[in-house]
Amino acid sequence: MPPSPYRLVITDIDGTLLDDEGGLPDLNRRALEHCRSMDVRTCLATGRRWTTCRRLLDRLDLHGLIDFCILNNGMMVREVARDRILYQHDFPVPLLLQAADRLNAIGLEPIVLGHNPDGATADVFHRHDALLNGDFISKNSAHARHVMDWRELDGAHIVELVLIGRREDLLIAAEAVAALDVETVILRNTYYAEFMLEITPKGVSKLSGATRLLGHLGLEARQAIAVGDSDNDFRLLEGLPMSIAVANAEARIRAVAKELTGSNAEGGFGQSVFRHIPMDGRYRPGPT
Question: Which residues are paired to 273 by β-bridges?
């Protein structure tokens, strides 16, 4: 059999790499260690901002096992070991104002997320309470700042707008901004109440972040494996030749993935890694 062609593994975090309690299954940790031993790079692709992603790396002792992070659904790409930004896309303040106006017209208000490079500065900005946003703000109180006018953020590194609430309310919110140059995705999350609406500029996704990273590494798309479970993984899994959905993934994600694997609780991520990057380095195609 030929050598494994894969040099980069890109994985979603919540619902994919982690179990439903936020823990890292042993098989998944061993798979990350295996990637390290085989000189295969690893990347977390997430809707999380750097503050919470770094907190995760610390909590699970993943420094040394994760090489890169695609943050805020493609708004930023960071190299972990060197603690440097490889790519950053700022959310334009004029677009923020347009989105806020559309949401305000139906009685809603977003939370604005920024980039916190040092772990100390504020990166959660809020004006007025809406839906279940208070849950997000209270759980990020150490990094939250109240603003009177969104124009105060002119010059700041804004990366995303979010709303927390029931799915039916977030669908209305997504429709309100649909005509703007933005991407929207609604996710079920395990940390905040109910669902989260994530809003980024048009053309920004985990796939665009992955494309930037592949270019930086001098790799082709066929040399990467992508694993995911949620709507914000759709374009990534659709766009890479080797895309894998965990068994607990949403139906839309299972349909677009090239392969299915075990659930997040079963270490489906690890199963896929060992199947495509086996111990002897020889490639064995997995089930479709």
Answer: none
Contacts of 281 (CB under 8 A, 6+ apart): 3, 4, 38
State whether CATH 1.10.10.10 applies to domain 93-201: no
For residue 30, what are the contacts with CB-CB under 8 A and spacing of at least 6? Answer: 270
In the chain, where the domains are located:
8-88+205-276, 93-201
Which one, of 204, 226, 229, lies nearest residue 214 by Cα?
Answer: 226
Could you read off the pLDDT of 4-60 as tens digits, one per residue?
Answer: 789 999 999 999 999 999 999 999 999 999 999 999 999 999 999 898 899 999 999
This prediction's pTM: 0.90
Write out the CATH class of domain 8-88+205-276: alpha beta
* Other beta carbons less than 10 A from residue 57's beta carbon: 17
Q: What is the pLDDT of residues 103-117, one digit of tens each?
A: 999 999 999 999 877
Closest to 91 measured CA to CA, from 150, 158, 153: 158
